[in-house]
Amino acid sequence: MDSLDENEALEDRLDRLESEVETLRRTIRATDDGDVETALRPRFEAVAGELQAVLAESNGGHGVIDTRTGGTITPLAADPDDVSLADIAHALANLTRFTGHGAAFYSVARHAVHVSHEVEARGGSPDAIRWGLLHDATEAYLADVPAPVKQSLPGYTRAEAELATVVREAFDIALSSADERLVDAADGDVGRYELAVHFPDSGHEKPALEYESADLERDPGVDDDELFLRRARELGYE
To answer: Which of 34, 42, 59, 93 supports an S-S bond with 225, CB 3.0-4.6 Å?
Structure first.
């Protein structure tokens, strides 16, 4: 395809996007305020994702990032072969929960280990337990975004979901809808427990957990990336 044809194809895609945005505008006007998020969020994300693709295509494609083990990965168009357990462990061990505002350093890696144990304590399947460990693996390549920001950041949720699919393929994880609900519930409860621990004066309720909360305490003798990798080995990953 020559440059003229490429430009025409991009213009056609932008025209379709413009038409979709206008359709969304009309739909918003006809939708009760309380239903807008539920009804339109998937379509907003689809439009944002397509716009990201158009912008990337017009600029030579999505960019790559360097990884700890010496490779590269394209977060917005990832290949399962580029996903590395060592890279995920290292990155998540250096990312903090609550954008660093907790009472003490508490990594996403440690949170993930705790969630995997909580899923196991609730009777989760082997794949659910593994996904409990890897459910935040996308943050190793996209970084962590606070939930209130994520909800209003067009395209991030879609990018995160697409990368999560790649991660599951890379680690051969097959989830049923029941598995997904269990991991989401465990993640939510562990997250609320962490909030109560790290922000004790903010009135957060501390839910009861099935798994002992020892992993919330940081062991200075064990680096968080090694804690993550040790749990991964327990679950059959090398």
So the answer is: 93
Beta-ladder partners of 107 = 96
In the block, which residue shows the tokens 């206008």?
Answer: 22
By CB atoms closer than 10 A (0-12, 13-18, 19+), residue 141 is buried
Give tens-digit pLDDT for 180-212: 999 999 999 999 999 999 999 999 999 999 997
Compute the distance between CA of residue 94 and CA of residue 97 in angstroms, rounded to an integer: 10
Three-class secondary structure of residue 237 per DSSP: coil
Q: 161: Cβ–Cβ under 8 A, 6 or more apart, which residues?
A: none
Beta bridge mates, 162:
none
83 vs 79: CA distance, rounded Å = 7
Q: Determine contact, residues 96/82, Cβ cutoff 8 Å.
A: no
∠ Cα 138 108 196 (to 5°): 130
Structure tokens at 217: 């305490």
Going by the DSSP 8-state scheme, the letter that residue 123 receives in this structure is T
